[in-house]
Write a structure and sequence with these properties.
643 residues; alpha+beta; seven-stranded antiparallel β-sheet; four-stranded antiparallel β-sheet; 16% strand
């Protein structure tokens, strides 16, 4: 028997079937049939199948040569979008506004896959997605629908995504839901799949973009957003179970045939690491560039958005301009019009610093006004807190509560009121303002749920759980990035399992690989008992200045080094030891902002970047040794003794 997982496995299964290998060895395919996979992945076959049941698809032509692509574009009319068959993450896709652009894009795409689809561009339309589950007995439910913050033109993996959809009317929601179920039944899906739509924001017109008859990145988001275990249910369906027979693992009292109902808002934001590469475009489009993503939960869009922004990177305070961001009018218009990994912060700059209206921003970006009005709500609180007459001392309980309910962190409020984070926390405690813990139960509180899938919010009045017993908290792996992937998830889960075997109650907190290191000392200073290596020693290892001092003190050889006090001081040191020198910020992951400087100009440029990445910790400059061999030693120690 054979079951297919992701895109690569799906492609292999289709090829094995074409070669006759599955029939030769009498291999039975579980779940969705190979024929259905071929129909969903082959762009031409998929369009034909949807036309058979009256589901609209964009005007498109499937081709396998550049010449045919150019002919198709002449028939359809520019601009067009190119989509690749049997591809993951929009690989090889893109927009073309002329024959020259299409020829270049087509050559690139056909080098990656055997077939491409030349399609009429619907850039600017809304992009909506439905996750659907169907069993072999034709029971069918929609588990989650999601809406992109960015209009069509940005790959879902590179877009901010909100679940459930926020801007659809009831008629639009049910029109697309009905179409999704009709498509899944017609295609014969057995298991889980998602259907992606383009929706005209000015009418009820819609087109199907594509269907993934497999688990995808969006499926993972839908599972986390709703608490509905899509991969588990799809596997059970593949083994012959039906939805009414499967238990809802969250409520444990209802079946998997219940469609989740959400009384909260989920916001997903991608994580890019484009800054780690030289000469790489920061533009984002139909081909995915992100390396990870975060998901935040709140009772309002404003709250969940700001939580998500801070989860992407600790240097992001929330929806606010990035420090040092001062574009001129022309630059600002361009950064708003053309999506990049920083457009959200340019939106904040335009609204807070330049006073751009919602209508003006909608005209430039085509982002739905509903989202822009929600961003304006955040900006109003930002401006009120930043008022020169506003101080932490005269901040009323109502003002502080409004800020917290709009997703502002204590650190964010402190920055705007020229106070300290600890001062804001103390003021909040004095007012009795604290977050409430709510439980995700998949059914909006209609049925009791014993599962501890929890989130915190200031937009509530009661806790869903009590905290009478004490336990051990494991700070989890958080967002994937370069230098942090599934191996850190494995470490976190292994730690939880080991603690449970020892009889400890546990709670997993998603923070993020390097981030637990960064906050270890603050936890320690606030009387939190940290197990394992002392936070004082973690700080000694992460703080470049302290670590270099320790090496000198215990007689371990190291290159000549100096802590950055001023740029002039660093230049003087570089001249004394000779270029090249290595700039080393503290508390960073995978060498972020760590660069080799070969002259004064490069030194100044890299020092500014390092200080921005690690503003609260020292930057050390060391002599860079050319041609050295690099060795790593991994070890386990107990009480300072190497085991």
């Amino acid at each position: 028997m054979l079951a297919f997982g992701g895109q690569t496995a799906l492609n292999c299964g289709v090829q094995l079937n074409k070669m006759g290998v599955l029939d030769k060895f009498n291999v039975r395919v579980l779940g969705t049939s190979v024929r259905t996979l071929e129909l969903s992945e082959d762009r031409d076959l998929f369009a034909s199948a949807l036309k058979d049941i009256g589901i609209p698809v964009a005007h498109s032509v499937a081709v396998d040569t550049v010449e045919d692509a150019l002919k198709a574009a002449e028939e359809i009319g520019y601009p067009v979008i190119v989509r690749s068959a049997y591809a993951l993450g929009g690989l090889g896709s893109g927009f073309a506004g002329s024959a020259a652009e299409l020829a270049a894009l087509g050559s690139q795409s056909l080098a990656l896959c055997p077939q491409i689809l030349v399609e009429k561009s619907m850039r600017g339309w809304k992009e909506v997605e439905y996750e659907v589950v169907r069993d072999a007995q034709d029971n069918c439910v929609t588990v989650c629908n999601m809406e992109n913050f960015d209009p069509l033109g940005v790959h879902t993996g590179d877009s901010i995504v909100v679940a459930p959809s926020q801007t659809l009317s009831d008629a639009e929601y049910h029109m697309l839901r009905t179409a999704a179920i009709k498509i899944v039944r017609h295609m014969g899906v057995v298991g889980e799949c998602n259907v992606q739509y383009a929706l005209n924001p000015h009418s009820m017109e819609y087109c199907v973009i594509e269907m993934n008859a497999r688990l995808s990145r969006s499926s993972a988001l839908a599972s986390k957003a709703t608490g509905y275990p899509l991969a588990f249910v799809a596997a059970k369906i593949g083994l012959g179970w039906t939805l009414p027979e499967l238990q809802n693992s969250v409520t444990t009292t209802t079946t998997a045939c219940f469609e989740p109902s959400l009384d909260y808002v989920v916001t997903k934001i991608p994580r890019w690491d484009l800054a780690k590469f030289n000469h790489v475009s920061r533009d984002i489009g139909s081909c995915m560039k992100s390396v990870g993503e975060v998901m935040a939960i709140g009772r309002t869009f404003e709250e969940s958005l700001q939580k998500a922004i801070r989860s992407v990177d600790p240097s992001f305070a929330g929806f606010a301009p990035l420090p040092g961001l001062t574009p001129n009018d022309k630059e600002l218009e361009e950064m708003l019009r053309s999506p990049t990994d920083r457009r959200l912060f340019y939106l904040a700059y335009a609204m807070i610093e330049r006073g751009y209206s919602v209508d003006r921003l909608h005209e430039i970006t085509a982002i739905d006004r509903w989202f822009l009005y929600k961003l304006e709500n955040i900006c109003e609180v930002h401006r009120a807190l930043r008022d020169p007459h506003q101080t932490l001392q005269n901040l009323t309980r109502a003002q502080l509560e409004t800020a917290k309910r709009t997703g502002f962190s204590d650190a964010q409020i402190a920055r705007l009121t020229n106070a300290t984070e600890d001062g804001v926390r103390a003021a909040r405690a004095a007012f009795g303002l604290r977050p409430f813990v709510k439980r995700i139960d998949t059914l909006a509180g209609e049925f009791p749920a014993p599962t501890n899938y929890l989130y915190t919010t200031y937009n509530a009045a009661t806790d869903d759980v009590s905290f009478g017993d004490r336990g051990t908290m494991v700070l989890g792996s958080g967002v994937y990035r370069i230098g942090s992937s599934v191996e850190f998830d494995w470490c976190g889960v292994s730690a939880i399992r080991a603690l449970r075997q020892l009889g400890h109650k546990t709670i997993m907190v998603s923070v993020g690989v390097q981030l637990p290191q960064n906050i270890a000392l603050r936890l320690h200073n606030n009387q939190v008992k940290v197990l394992g290596t002392s936070p004082e020693m973690i700080d000694a290892a992460e703080d470049r200045h302290r670590f270099s001092q320790i090496l000198d003190r215990i007689g371990v050889d190291q290159p000549a080094w100096k802590e950055l006090v001023s740029v002039e001081d660093a230049e003087s040191f570089a001249e004394s030891v000779g270029y090249p020198v290595l700039i080393r910020p503290s508390y960073v992951l995978s060498g972020a902002a760590m660069n080799v400087a070969y002259d004064h100009a490069m030194l100044r440029e890299h020092l500014g970047l390092a200080a921005a990445v690690s503003p609260e910790h020292p930057v050390v400059v060391t002599k860079f040794i050319r041609g050295a061999r690099e060795l790593d030693i991994d070890a386990v120690a107990h009480n300072g003794e190497l085991i």
